């Protein structure tokens, strides 16, 4: 009996490691062609509408909306903030502006923009924001409009069963700027309505400063999305199917 269970488990694990062909909506580009980056941008743009719908075979989650159990916010020293049960909305409208792939340095750059991204979920905050003490937990809405993102990552090539696969290294990086940010934290200060309303007004009037402290919620979400999507395909599809070297 134990033997049988072990067999089933190992079969499942082995099955996940099997390589898959490139999905039909992702078209490769010729690395040595002068218009390689333009080709990557064009093919990336054409693939996006398919990617955002999710593709379970490649472990790509659905992006409309994306559900995240938790988002880590690396806030300032004096502030702790946790977001849980997050629904990230608007990601399916992400637009690609530039793709640059440096196969010698093994580095990829992606510029993207979004007209609107909404994080709807539960927050737990404690500490100081700018100069004011803030404390509370409850439902929240953190929204950014006209957001621009620059995502870059390095990759290594890993040989598995005779084929090479790209693997993202840990030092991926996301820079972003937003046109405007909106915050709504319900139930601040144990539900004290006056204090809560005053704080929300303060946050929204000072959004440019506030986004520096809690904007990590947005950048971590986008980084997770970009990383999950790239790794999903890289893990299953061999390098030689994604890029053409000739
Ligand atoms: C979140 O806040 C934005 C900006 O105020 C607003 O447009 C949007 O409707 C809100 N979303 C929800 C689900 O309340």
UniProtKB/TrEMBL annotation:
InterPro entries listed in its UniProt record: Haemolymph_juvenile_hormone-bd, To_sf
Protein name: Protein takeout
Entry GO terms, CC: extracellular space
Sorted UniProt keywords: Biological rhythms, Signal
Highest taxon of the lineage: Eukaryota
Signal peptide (UniProt feature, chain positions): 1-17
PANTHER family cross-referenced by the UniProt entry: CIRCADIAN CLOCK-CONTROLLED PROTEIN DAYWAKE-RELATED (PTHR11008:SF32), PROTEIN TAKEOUT-LIKE PROTEIN (PTHR11008)
Pfam families to which the protein is assigned, alphabetical: JHBP (PF06585)
Gene3D superfamilies per UniProt: Haemolymph juvenile hormone binding protein (3.15.10.30)
Family in the record: Belongs to the TO family.
Keyword Signal: yes
Gene Ontology BP, a term: circadian rhythm
The organism of origin for this protein: Callosobruchus maculatus
């Amino acid at each position: 009996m134990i033997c049988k269970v072990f067999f089933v488990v190992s079969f499942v694990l082995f099955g996940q490691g099997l390589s898959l062909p490139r999905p039909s909506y992702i078209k490769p580009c010729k690395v040595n062609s002068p218009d390689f980056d333009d080709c990557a941008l064009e093919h990336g743009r054409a693939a996006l509408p398919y990617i955002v719908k999710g593709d379970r075979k490649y472990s790509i989650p659905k992006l409309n909306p994306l559900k995240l159990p938790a988002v880590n916010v690396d806030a300032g020293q004096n502030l702790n903030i946790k977001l849980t049960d997050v629904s990230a909305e608007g990601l399916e409208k992400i637009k690609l502006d530039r793709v640059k792939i440096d196969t010698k340095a093994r580095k990829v750059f992606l510029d993207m923009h979004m007209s609107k991204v909404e994080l709807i979920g539960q927050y737990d905050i404690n500490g100081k924001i700018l100069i004011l003490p803030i404390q509370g937990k409850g439902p929240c809405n953190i929204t950014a409009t006209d957001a621009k993102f620059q995502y870059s990552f390095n990759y290594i090539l890993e040989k598995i069963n005779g084929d090479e696969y790209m693997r993202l290294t840990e030092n991926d990086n996301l820079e972003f700027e937003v046109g405007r940010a909106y915050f709504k934290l319900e139930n601040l200060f144990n539900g004290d309505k006056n204090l809560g309303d005053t704080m929300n007004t303060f946050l929204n009037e000072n959004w440019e400063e506030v986004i520096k402290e809690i904007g990590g919620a947005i950048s971590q979400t986008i980084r997770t999305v970009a990383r999950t999507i790239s790794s999903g395909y890289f893990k299953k599809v061999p390098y030689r199917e994604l890029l053409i070297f000739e």
